[in-house]
Structures are given as C-alpha cells and as structure tokens.
Amino acid sequence: MKQEEVAPPLERWPEHLHDLPDGELEALAKDYRWLDEESHASVQPEFHKRREAIIAECKRRGRSELSAACEQPRK
Questions:
Q1: DSSP label of 33
Q2: Residue whose C-alpha is closest to residue 52's, from 74, 64, 75, 35
Q3: Whether residue 73 has a cis bond before it, omega within 30° of 0
Q4: CA nearest 31: which of 51, 5, 17, 46?
Q5: Burial label, 44 (beta-carbon count in 10 A; 0-12, 13-18, 19+)
Q6: Contact at 8 Å (CB) between 69 and 28?
Q7: What is the CA radius of gyration of the chain?
Q8: Are 61 and 22 in contact (CB under 8 A)?
C-alpha cells in the first residue's frame, strides 16, 4: 500500500518551510506550480496561500530560479 504524505496544518505555514531542506522545498515548489489563479480559481484559498509561502521562502533563500518556476504554471 502506498503511504500518502500529509501537509502540515495551515497554522504551521509558512513557519515550517524555514526548517525544510532545499530538496524538500524544491519538491514542494514543483508540486504547487500548477496553482495559477486563472485556471484553478475553484481551488481552496489555503492552497494559494501555501503556494505564496513557498515562493516567498524560495526568494528568502536566494533561490530565484526556483521561485520563478513555481510562479509560472505548468504548460
């Protein structure tokens, strides 16, 4: 049986992002990349908040290429 990953509760965002290793942050950025406002307007607002927190953490760490990749939706 495949084990599912569970994201931390919303109240822990974005604080828990500071503790993530770069590889895990990169994986999150790729996972949240599909959340662009126009095509996924029905997605729950907390997911958009998490995406913005991931982008902000990437920028804080100086990973501008990763934050840019997360900001651009997958085509």
A1: T
A2: 35
A3: no
A4: 51
A5: exposed
A6: no
A7: 12
A8: yes
